[in-house]
Amino acid sequence: MTAFSSKKRVLIVDDSAVVRQTLSEIISGHPQLEVMATANDPFQAAERLKRELPDVIVLDVEMPRMDGITFLRRLMAQKPIPVVICSTLVDQGSRTFLAALEAGAVDVIQKPNLSTRQFLQDSSIRIQDAVLAAAHARLARRREILPAAKLSADAVLPVATRGAMVQTTHKVVAIGASTGGTEALRVVLEALPRTAPPIVVVQHMPEVFTANFARRLDELCQVTVKEAQDGDSVLPGQALIAPGGRHMMLTRSGANYRVEVKEGPLVNRHRPSVDVLFRSVSRVAGANAVGVIMTGMGDDGARGLKEMRDQGARTVGQDEATSVVYGMPAEAMKCGAVEVQVGLTEIAGLVMRLSNASGATRAKA
């Protein structure tokens, strides 16, 4: 195992010479990464791809001749390569951010309109982590109609009909995900019925993106999905997504669950951290919880899930075959945190079965 043979090769596509140079310096500064080439637009990138393939592409959105999202869609339909979007057009959790993820981007990095070079240098660790995680992603060829097919479904929002449920929120499901998790969460949450138990979610995602991400899932799912706010009740038929940049913890007053959203240090290089959520669930819900750890780079969540299992919770890990990056689930398996491991499309059904089997079963009206 030499230092050179294990390096992941990166193609940078951006119309700014300053950005290409700065990204090249940052990526080359990581011992496991090297820059294969740079291109100033998708056409130049396509010519380069005819000769050799990188492990990862870092791609801008706004470029001459062809925008980055169009290039990404075509790439994913023909020759899937892990892509990290780095653009100014996602600075407010915009539609561009969601479009990039739906088109197949593994991760999205926001860059400002001003002082781009300094921002990129200040964000060097975030950029290196995103590129390295993407290099381990496993992708399948996509059809562009896939996201549109889900948009036509009517959303069912059950909150207004569930005022009495506050007294019976004894079960709770905690889900943690990172790289590849945005699409994986969509698959799981869309498959859950409106009668699903309360769900709390940590998805590693930059600040300002989670609100739009939650709104988009809310349009697609039978369960209500929203970005969590401090003090929110945790209710059946609802999923709360931890806001980017803040930790989320489960709390309890009597029979009622709530979430606490607060600032704090990075845990496992992340805020929000899956470990922080899972640990709080282990202490507050104990055996009345189900924990799910999904695709992602690193080990965030493994220890917290082990704590949940030790307290009697049922625990689930996404399997290697369906994980974009089999990092977090693998670490959870290694430490004995995972009770059962299944494919992505099996998680929702298993969550429902385990929720009915663990702790006191909620009586149906």
UniProtKB/TrEMBL annotation:
KW Manganese (keyword) present: no
Catalytic reaction list: L-glutaminyl-[protein] + H2O = L-glutamyl-[protein] + NH4(+); [protein]-L-glutamate 5-O-methyl ester + H2O = L-glutamyl-[protein] + methanol + H(+)
A GO CC term attached to the entry: cytoplasm
Active-site residue numbers: S178, H204, D300
Positions of the Response regulatory domain: 9-126
A GO molecular-function annotation: protein-glutamine glutaminase activity
Chief localization: cytoplasm
Residue numbers carrying 4-aspartylphosphate: D60
PROSITE patterns given in the database record: CHEB (PS50122), RESPONSE_REGULATORY (PS50110)
Pfam families linked to this entry: CheB_methylest, Response_reg
Entry comment on modification after translation: Phosphorylated by CheA. Phosphorylation of the N-terminal regulatory domain activates the methylesterase activity.
InterPro entries in the cross-refs: CheB-like, CheB_C, CheY-like_superfamily, Sig_transdc_resp-reg_Me-estase, Sig_transdc_resp-reg_receiver
E.C. numbers: 3.1.1.61, 3.5.1.44
Domain remark text: Contains a C-terminal catalytic domain, and an N-terminal region which modulates catalytic activity.
Function comment: Involved in chemotaxis. Part of a chemotaxis signal transduction system that modulates chemotaxis in response to various stimuli. Catalyzes the demethylation of specific methylglutamate residues introduced into the chemoreceptors (methyl-accepting chemotaxis proteins or MCP) by CheR. Also mediates the irreversible deamidation of specific glutamine residues to glutamic acid.
Matches recorded under HAMAP family: CheB_chemtxs
Name assigned to this protein: Protein-glutamate methylesterase/protein-glutamine glutaminase
Gene: cheB
